[in-house]
Amino acid sequence: RNMSSAGPEGRKKMRECDGLIDSLVYYIQGAIADHEPNDKATENCVCILHNLSYQLELELPESYAQSIYMQRRNLSSNDKTPGCFGTRSRKVKEKQQDTPLPEEKSNPRGVESLWHSTLIRIYLSLIAKSTRNYTQEASLGALQNLTAGTGPMPFAVARTVVQKANGLPSIRTMLHVSHPTVKKTAVSLLRNLSRNTSLQSDIAREVLPDLVSILPESVPGSDIVCETTASTCYTLYNLTQSNSHNARLLLSADGLPKIIAISMNDCNMFSKASRAASVLLYSLWSHTDLHSAYKK
Questions:
Q1: Measured between alpha carbons, how far is 84 from 257 in angstroms, rounded to an integer?
Q2: Residue 16 lies in a domain
Q3: Where is the composition biased (Basic and acidic residues) (predicted)?
Q4: Are residues 150 and 202 in the same domain?
Q5: Which of 108, 164, 230, 293 has its CA 20 to 30 A from that of 67?
């Protein structure tokens, strides 16, 4: 567990170690089957896998990178229009989200297991069944790592979490735990998931009212609550930016007074939470059909 946090070279060596990842997955599967999701060894195994999934998309061996990203490169070469905010850029991003991974192997080995649906379901199972905060946080964090990029792998993992493995109910429960780091990681995972436009309706229906409920009534005091609040606002921004129905759902959940209060930050003009709330308010105002409801 300590060695797995030793940096890129350490992660590379451990991912390449024959049988190591397979053994960790095997042990966790046995612990879940024996209804023992809270033992210390399971926690250690999940924390190792969490660390080995960090920056996985960037650090994949060339053989995997070629097969997974060939479609992405072909897509990019077909679009010669540069620009950060142009409509063509947005279309390319949407196409990338629809680009599927190569078909999953039925018996993954080694590094292939790290993004396989079997391990994704194991993480979700541990989130639901374990009462150890470190195990919950590491499981959420591994899924956060796997959904952090912009290529086909993160979006495929996101689809598995939301649609194939029905993971949102378990993640939603973590929004209401008392442990601040677990809650922060759960929100960060939802922020990653909410970037996928094809999943936004499912996510909003399942967790948008819960996201509003965990917003504080004013600018948060502690750093970790401030980061969690900022991440919550950006998640709500993703869900409502292009969807008037979701913006109305936020309104009906009494989110607007909270967001306004968080945006009014007198003591620290550079507060992450206040800035995120202001960005969200600006986006909400773009739904002109809701102006009369906002004013009320």
A1: 33
A2: yes
A3: 94-107
A4: no
A5: 164
Tell me, yes or no, whether 154 and 237 share the same domain.
no
Q: How many domains does the structure of the chain reveal?
A: 2
| Residue 109 clears pLDDT 70, i.e. is over it | yes
What gap in Å lies between CA 22 and CA 49, rounded to an integer?
A: 10
156 and 264 co-located in one domain: no
Q: Do 143 and 202 belong to one domain?
A: no
- Domain span holding position 110: 1-64+105-167
Q: How far apart are the first and last CA of the chain?
A: 54
Query: Is residue 135 domain-resident?
Result: yes
Q: In angstroms, what is the C-alpha Rg of the chain?
A: 20
Residue 116 near residue 105, CB atoms below 8 Å:
yes
> Cβ distance 143 to 189 under 8 Å?
yes
CB 239 within 8 A of CB 203: yes
Those residues whose C-beta lies under 8 Å from the C-beta of residue 30, and which sit 6 or more positions away, are none
Residue partners of 214: CB distance under 8 A and separation at least 6: 175, 176, 183, 187, 228, 232
Residue 151 has a pLDDT of 82
* More confident: 224 or 96: 224
Q: Is residue 132 part of a domain?
A: yes
Q: Is the pLDDT of residue 171 over 90?
A: yes
Instruction: Convert the pLDDT of each residue in 211-230 to its tens digit.
Output: 999 999 887 778 899 999 99
Residue 179 CB neighbours (<10 A): 13
Least confident piece of the model among 4-18, 55-69, 72-86, 114-128: 72-86
For residue 87, tell me if it sits in a domain. Answer: no
Specify the amino acid at residue 232: T
